[in-house]
Write a structure and sequence with these properties.
By secondary structure, the protein is α/β, with parallel strands linked by helices. Helix content is 51%, strand content 12%. Strand 2, helix 17 and strand 3 form a beta-alpha-beta unit. Helix 13 packs antiparallel against helix 14 and helix 14 runs antiparallel to helix 15. Pfam families: Glycos_transf_2.
Amino acid sequence: MNTVEILRALPETIRLRLAAASHGSAHLAGTGMRCVQLAATEPDSRDLLDLGLDMVMAAFEADPLERRTLDFLAATQARYPFLDPTRHALVNMLRAPGCNGPLARAVSGLARARRYEEAFDAVELQASAAFDDPFLSGALVRLARRSGQWERGRALLEKQGGDEIGVRTLMLADCRFQAGDPQAALRAYEAVGWNGSTHLLGRRAACLARLGRKAEAVALHREALALRPWLTTNLLLAHDLASGWADERRPIPGRTLLLCYTWNKAELLHATLETLAPELSRDMRLFVLDNGSTDQTPDVIAAFAERLGENMAGHIRLPVNIGAPAARNWLLSLPELAGYDFVAFIDDDALPPTGFAEYFGAAVARYPEAGAYGCKIVDVQRPERVQHADIQLVPPGRSPAAFDLPEGFATMRLLEPGRNEMDFGQYDYLRPAASVTGCFHLFRTETAVSGPGFGLRFSPSQLDDLDHDLELLENGKTAVFQGHLAVNHVRSTGLSGDAQGRLAGNAHKLYRKWTRERAQKVKRLAGQALLEDLTVRERELRDA
């Protein structure tokens, strides 16, 4: 069976999750375990059981130190022997009492407490024998991830000796990749020695893609698909590399007005406008709304208005902060929009790269009827960390505890594996999505102006962009994610206590508005768009 045939044969809850992504150890393990649970209640469900076990095995390959996955594999192996001798021995070795010793646990605890220097010092003072514990290698990678000190983590891992089971080498490869050395990472991934690991094939393909060896990267993705045809992410990545979509740049087909609203972030706004200035022209101009700022924001806007001349289509200062949804609606009511084919909202702390418009132009060319076009958002201080990628819909599970929602209250669930993930190229694709992040997104002017508007119930901010995308989706206009465009974002994704409270409140409002009937409709439409898109991708990749 090919990828789409496998998906169509699955129960909806599994099909939607797998169509959305086939990467991320937590996502794979959770989806695989659901398959196994469903198989226990379904007649003639051996295929579903096999798929679930294979997905959990893939999760293990991606993160061999995750205790929940290890315990599940060991327990399931006792009932349904499915592990080959090598992997069975590896699972048992990693569950042995000597693993995850005191030093590994101490380093992990210090990293969680953000005591990074103490954690590194604790490792540097140890003899090399301490690295016989593979969990220490994992703790070092997590420490490098949290601190951003990938070179230091790599140096410590490289000081160590042999690696009988391959875990330290895998961790070293990840450090080398994130330290910006794909060639060295490639050598390490090749040395891990886990035959048949699709995770390693994908990581090697990512290295080759970064090195410009795209045909070789496609070949490795094809090899992974031959082993596990359900790997939807590999299908997307292989398609975009083989078809040229990954390199496609086109002008936006019409004039574009960039819309920026801001409040009390003069320094950040200055950086954003400085980044945008070289990109502006007759075909792309800027309008800024000052949402009642009390800092130096008016001075920043005035200076850029003088500097940019006619490329600053206009600016306005409101007497009070009316919140994000109302600011967006105000901007969409401007008479100046009449002369523009497209509008794009950009945050006052977003820093897009040179030539960003041509990435959006490529997305418009491939998906001309989309409701919105978004991009991959990364942390400006840690660009290897993805803040937002594509957002997909799956059936609701348990209500998120952080939202303090009663059981069964949620009517849908957002699946966004990319949130705060390390970037290994797993989102370097162009595809439909249920929603895209509002940090920087593009609309056809007609769609934006005649559309539903941004819900004032979500003031002052949070979830209004998601709600807007769902409104468009309900009316047949799917969002599109342009993962080949990475935009730096200054503000972190962490939320203060007040912001968490607003998010919880807005989640209540979102679920009240999107009843189960409406949520089921948009979930079905989003899932249908994913399947149709994967069908075309699979055919084009086969014929390439």
